[in-house]
Amino acid sequence: IPVKFTPWYTPIDQADSIWPEVNNFDIDLINLVQVKENRNVAMRQPNSDLALYKPYVEYDGKARVTVLGSPSISDVKGILIGIRNPKRMGTGADDDGNPISSIVWVDELRLTDFNDKPGWAATGRMEAVLADFARVSFSVSHSSAGFSSIEKKITQIPLEYVTDYIVTTDMDWGKFFSEKAGVNIPMHFDYGVSKITPEYNPLQPDIVLKEDLKTYEDKKERDSVKRLVVDYTSRTNVNLMNVRKTRTDNKKKPRVYDVENFDVSFAYSKIKHRNIDFEYDDRKEYRGGFGYNYNGRPKNYVPLKKVNGLTSKHLALIKDFNIYLLPKTISFRTDMNRQIHQILYRDKSFGDVIIYPTVNRIWNWNRMFNFKYDFSKSLSFEFNTGTNAYIKEPTIYPDKETEEWDEYKQSIWREIGGFGTMQRYNQSLRITYNLPLKKIPVLDWITIAANIQTLYTWAASPVSIQPRFGNNIENGNQKQINSNADLQNLYNKIPYFKSLNQTQRRSRSSSSRTRGGPQPKPAENDTVKQNKQIGKKFGEGVLKVLMAVKKVTVTWTQGNGTSLPGYMLEPKFLGMDFSNTAPGWGFVFGKQYNDFPQRVADNGWYSVDSALNNAYMQKVNEALSYKVNGDFLGVIRIDLDGDRIYTDNYQSYFRYDNEGIFTEYSPVNTGNFSISYSIIKTSFQGPDKNEISPTFVQFLDNRIVIAERLAHGDPAWQNLPDDAKYYYDTIAGREFPFGYGSNSQPVLYHAFLSAYGGSDASSVAIESPFPKFPIPNWRITINGLTNIKAIAKVFRSFNITHGYRSMLSITSWRTNVNYKDDESGQVFQDTYNFITKYDVGVVSVIENYSPLIGLDMTMHNSLNVRAEFKKTRNLSMSFVNNQLTEIVGNELVLGLGFRVKGLKFQIASFTGKKSNRVGSDLNLKLDFGIRDNKTTLRRIDEDNNQVSAGSMQYTLNFAADYMLSQSLQLRAYYNWTSNNPYISAQFPNATTSAGFTLRFNLAQ
Q1: Which of 76, 111, 146 is a domain's end point?
Q2: Distance in angstroms (rounded) separating the CA atoms of residues 382 and 356
Q3: Fewest C-beta atoms under 10 Å: which of 110, 124, 349, 439?
Q4: Distance CA 732, CA 710 (A)
Q5: Is 923 within 8 Å of 971 (Cβ atoms)?
Q6: What is the CA radius of gyration of the chain?
Q7: Which among 30, 31, 52 has a CA at the least distance from the CA of 43?
Q8: What is the span of the domain harbouring residue 23?
């Protein structure tokens, strides 16, 4: 574009000369696109010498537009503005042919006149019901380019025309049979098309497709381009699912051979897809299934039911002996799923590139079996298997007219006859037994249920490495016992205790009915009778307290499992290879062996490839939990509970070494642990003003006591010479036993637990880092205080709560690889500490009083008063850096609530009509809270106590709720928070928010 220069020394006030109007370039981008489109049309003309690599020039007035290649406005990321002094051409007066020195200013580059053409969309649906036989529906939708939701940005608006239509039919061919036949043949068919036509040509993204198609004179070329750029998808689905005969006579007993037990399914789907990238992307799927499901109602036989000599309830266990002769459930299902996926990518290059179609064929075959048998009412058995296989098809798919087609079919049938190539096999067995304690009168207050489950899995390795590294087998078993003791039934076995419990329930209900009423007065002179009644009531009260424990529940679970890679065989039936009796009936049904890899290797079933690098694993997990529920006089409820969870995962690598010897490498145990553990004895031992904690000081003092105990119990230390049994520990500043220094992990671990648990270091258990029995947590609720006459006069309800929960956790532990269970006394490098069996990274104890004390009182005038004090403590002892992180929190919450019933007022009408009178309850709520939270880091080797985080926080929250109507609620609120940090790196801050909200409930 020619530019006009401003002469030197032009006055500054002549703005029109400095910024000439002819230099105000207004470039219409569509002109650039039009020049390219003209070039493309000219290239398609016969005998044209134009090409993409040759510059093509057109003039727009004095402006020259040059197109080279196939540029697109949509690809523009930046604009280059430059000034050129072209070489003089001819003797034109406008060009003197001399060099020019100039200063160029470019100002106000802007893009305007965006295309904001609106779009539209429409949908339609039609449905027809043909009696009770079929339902046919047709739906269509269309949206034009530019149609989108209102919140979309202009760059997010779709620039494409989308048309979808689908025809769906559901039919029940069983309606052509009589109802007594019970034939069920449901059929589904649908056909749908989705067509996405872009507004701009994807091959020329800045040219409107409709305009570009007009430039093609040949209809075949125009249709070819349209087929190329339109994204077309068609879907066809046909299925017959669960075709079967239903049972019409429910009174008839099911038989194993009934035709109603069988069902058949078939489904076919086809997807045809093409777009700018794919010449075709077609998928076909064939699914077929055959099932058998027998759910019987076997008869329960009680052989001794009519024996006259067994009428006593003490002989009920013998009399009620029962058995089932037939199974409860037998089910089998086999499903095949064949998928064919064919893709042919389009050739977008300018060369002669040959592109072949890509074909992916998948033929899966799944089989399932389920068997349930109840031996008796209390003993049941269940067995399940599942097999995932595939049909291995030949690589080349021949034409049906060739000789190779018969060979192809024979290969497929051989695969089917061999039940396919197995990918995965799994089976499970479960036995459940409910002990018949209800039949034993002296034990009928106890229920015990036991079950055992075994698992076995065979998984194939990838085909490429299967001959070298074999497959993976895994088994497991889980045993569980659930016991429940209803002590209330036990107490009721004694008539006097039973009468006491009944009297307690009657007195509780009568006191609630006559609360506040006149009470009878005893005769003034009847002192003997009064004394007897006082003694009787005292004795009954003691017995009621002793019978406060009502229910005890205990659950124990243990699980074991083994996983072994490198297994070279394949199961044939029930997970076994019967020709080798491998891997053994014991392993298949969950039995655990400590030397299982060696057994497999000795039988030649293990991979001999020394490159096998998958780990052999054994796992053990145990869980114990219990709950105790108590009720004291119907006023105080106490709930106790405890938990213990322990996991141990063993891992090693078994493989043949270079000398052909089967060897185990890198054995290690890892796991985690948690248990209910009380540290209540030190809950209220806070630090002084210098953050020195007496509990932490006790922790440091306990180290020497624990070290002495560990040393005297270790033969490795006892075998040391007398002059080598102690050394000077520079960290503690005193002598410690050799091998058990002040920073030795077992010394710190047991010293920490003894100090914060409030136990004597000289007697605390140190044999294992895993305590055996979970200390109970508890929650106490007192909700019967309104039975007291003085309290009942003021309060409608008066509840007191208290809760305590503490848990010790070891998130991860592992055994030391260098540890040896002998008396050699090996030490860690550059230390005086013995290598210990266990390596614990972090042990934490979390303690919560939730709450320490809580009060919830509601008066007769609807005033609610709440007060709650919570206390938390989180102790995290890291043995990596010998640092204790202590997080202590205290929180006090005071709350008031009041309901003003039936508050009414007038709402004026804005339309001048009669004002409305509104009446509803006004709910007021006020909460004030104080929270003190502090984090302290306590270094063991540096004797340093440092506050690292925390603050004192105050909160005040007020809210008022009022229902203006059944669906409209008005709420006013005020919230204030003040935060005062304990560390200087943070600044005090306060937040205040207030306002009101209107909530309209559309659901009502």
Answers
A1: 111
A2: 52
A3: 110
A4: 17
A5: no
A6: 43
A7: 52
A8: 1-90+98-111
